[in-house]
Amino acid sequence: MRLICSCVVTALSLTLFACGKTSTTKQSVSGSSNSxxxxxxxxxxxxxVKQIKQGMTLQEIKxxxxxxxxxxxxxxxxxxxFSWTDAAKKSIHLTIQNDKVSGLVSFSDPIAGPLDNPKVxxxxxxxxKKGMALQEVKAILGxxxxxxxxxxxxxxxxxxETYTWLNSPKQSSATIGFTNGQVSTLSNYKxx
Length: 192
What we know:
Blueprint: H1 2-19, H2 46-49, H3 58-65, E1 70-74, E2 79-85, E3 91-97, E4 100-109, H4 122-126, H5 134-141, E5 146-152, E6 157-167, E7 172-179, E8 182-190
Antiparallel strand pairs: 1-2, 2-3, 3-4, 4-5, 5-6, 6-7, 7-8
């Protein structure tokens, strides 16, 4: 159980770090929660994240994502952090500076891979090498449990994809970063 909490905290920390998000929960811009009670927002997708461009206004982004964001507070002078999360726990985080998108946009998706993946072992994690494709890593570790994607709206490109694999019964996890579809950060393995 401690491992699951650690993995969740790690994934959230990556998301929060990437977007400069604080842990303080605040009301949304409209004064209501951005979560559509018990429903999944079909607009919280990687495809829609890729439509976000540097310099877009919050109103333009709301038109793409179809709901009010949650304001996560100030990120400095004329900067505010916003997030969109649906009932399936997919989320998008970004910063608005001087009323326009500024910096990287993150997209998090709990892919729904297995939480009890027996392939998540120290031995298998050691087989992962820089330059391997995601399909090669999946052949070793199986389906991932979640992914965090960082998107650069100024360039219109994904900068990194960080996948996590879990084996809750064994209290083990592996987190691997990909750039341009290849392993760029070797496995951060935790467990026995």
